[in-house]
Amino acid sequence: MDNRYTIDTPENIEFGYDIAGIGSRFLAAMIDTFLIGVAEVIILLVVGLAVQSLSLAESILTAAGALLGFVVLWGYYVAFELAWNGQSPGKRVLGLRVVRDGGRPITIIASVIRNLIRIIDFLPFLYGIGVVAMFADRRSRRLGDLAAGVLVVRERAEVTLESLNARSQPLNSVSVAGVPLVAVGALNETDYALVQEFLERRRDLALETRRQLGMRLVRGLEQRLAIQSGMQPEQFLEYVAASYRIQHEPVVQESAVSSQQSE
What we know:
This protein is an alpha+beta fold. The protein has two domains: 4-154, no CATH class; 161-258, no CATH class. Helix content is 58%, strand content 10%. The chain has eleven helices and six strands. It has a four-stranded antiparallel beta sheet. Strands 5-6 form a two-stranded antiparallel sheet. Helix 2 (58-83) packs across helix 4. The longest helix has 32 residues, at 22-53. The N and C termini lie far apart (66 Å).
């Protein structure tokens, strides 16, 4: 079984995910099942009280309670996966996340498909079919994952520039019209286009994809510029992009400097 899922981005940057194993997924499922069970018990109690206190027919209240219970059972995962970008409470506790092939965030259609087929994966008891499918698939995917084109990966601990080795030299920047500048003479249009594309696409990327891609871009830029910024990765990329635009638009720069001097 392959425990590593590697992705090559259009920018020729390679990064990988650790595939979540059956054990961690089972524990996450147990946490979620417990929470769903608590919600179902509450529904049963509410329906029982309603039957005793309201004049409506018992069959109507029972049917309403059963429908609400199904909505909770099935909608629990869909609601959390969309709200928490591929995580349910159980997955969040275990540090797992559902992503689409290519590391993209899960969509509502993919979430609906994988959770509808959860009913089949659960058969005959405690995800019996799902476990067999996960053993057979090299990326530990159950039938719902295969149908939806997703996989469950393990989140890595957040990496920041502050956690790297000692800094080589501080970032020396000046400000033009309030915009911090970085000396970007060593960069070319291709470098700028790469940074700009990341900044425009980042909100469409899964959290882990966004973090790793941003870190790799920052490391490459710091090496090219012979600096170590000490900033958060995306903040540094924003400063590099702004600096490049300003330093390659002399008219804008001179206008901004004149404005500053006149104040």
